[in-house]
Amino acid sequence: MADKDIIQTIERDGVTIARVRLEAILTSEQVEAFGKALLPLADVPGRRVVLNFLGVHQLTSMALGEIIRLHKRLAEAGGELCLADIDPRIWEVFAITRLDRLFRIFDREEEAVAALLGEGEAET
Amino acid sequence: MPEPTADIRDPTGWSEEVLPTRLSAIRESERRVLSRLAELGYGEDCRFAVRLAIEEALINAMKHGNRMEESRKVRLAYRVLADRVEIRVADEGAGFQPACIPDPTVDENLQRPCGRGIMLMRSYMDEVTYSANGAEVHMVKYRGSPVRGFPPEGRRR
């Protein structure tokens, strides 16, 4: 599976929007493909990224590990990560593991973009 | 490609499968358990919870228990009853002490990789107990029970 089949990226006002195109990040193959597709997002120093989970209905702790890894790599490179459009059940997973404290999470993609552009603070 | 080498259903309702230590082997077993839940009318929330817990338990058994040695086996036993689902996962590793796993939710551990799977199993299943050496886990989910361990300040949106 090509990276573009896992993550679709677009640029908007200097913010990279990465839309996850998997319905589940569950199996080892899905997690591996997801992690591999995330890697290039941290290649550009100072990059601001919105990771959009619209349509993702299930993930595991291994997938959470890949998101944490991206968060760390972006932070090390002076960038920033926001998450958006998270399914209520997935949001619960973030809340249970308290990762909602680590990540900036927004209801919608445009709110996350605005926050990264310094135009709003509508975190959930 | 060898798939589960045994699938036995006994009179008490338990089915047992023996899996090779290969992550790709998880999917089919998981599918069979979830089909059984759907047959007995378990709802989407319950199926989400059981799927997550089985996935985490089997990954832990293969990665941390059997150290990804394919010759080692993982035994998955399950029974789906009218009021509850029970899952047992056993590996052939040396075992571990669950109490020694660091709390993944404290600030200094938030970015560390360990402990989150066990925490999710405990949150989504109603009972999670380990054998004395930690190499076998027994999980129970009751029909209609809510997710446990959900932080009081959290909410479902």
Q: What characteristics describe this protein?
A:
heterodimer; A: 124 residues; alpha/beta; five-stranded mixed sheet; two-stranded parallel sheet; 6 helices; globular; B: 157 residues; alpha+beta; Heat Shock Protein 90; six-stranded antiparallel sheet; 22% strand; disordered C terminus
Commentary on this structure:
The complex is a heterodimer of chains A (124) and B (157). In chain A, strand 1 and strand 2 form a beta hairpin. In chain A, the strands form 2 sheets. In chain A, strands 1-2-4-6-7 form a 5-stranded mixed sheet, sandwiched between helices. The radius of gyration of chain A is 13 Å and the shape is globular. Chain A is built from 6 helices and 7 strands, in the order αβββαββαβααβα. Chain A has helices at 3-6, 28-38, 61-76, 88-96, 99-102, 109-116; strands at residues 7-12, 15-20, 24-25, 48-52, 58-59, 80-84, 104-106. Chain B is an alpha+beta fold. Chain B has one domain (15-146): Histidine kinase-like ATPase, C-terminal domain (Heat Shock Protein 90), CATH 3.30.565. Helix content of chain B is 29%, strand content 22%. Chain B has helices spanning 26-39, 44-65, 116-124, and strands spanning 7-9, 15-20, 73-80, 84-90, 127-130, 136-142. A 6-stranded antiparallel sheet of chain B has the order 1-2-3-4-6-5, covered by helices on one side. Chain B is globular and about 40 Å long. Chain B starts with 6 loop residues before the first strand and ends in a 15-residue tail after the last strand. Residues 1-7 and 152-157 of chain B have low confidence and may be disordered. The interface between A and B is medium-sized, with 28 and 29 residues.
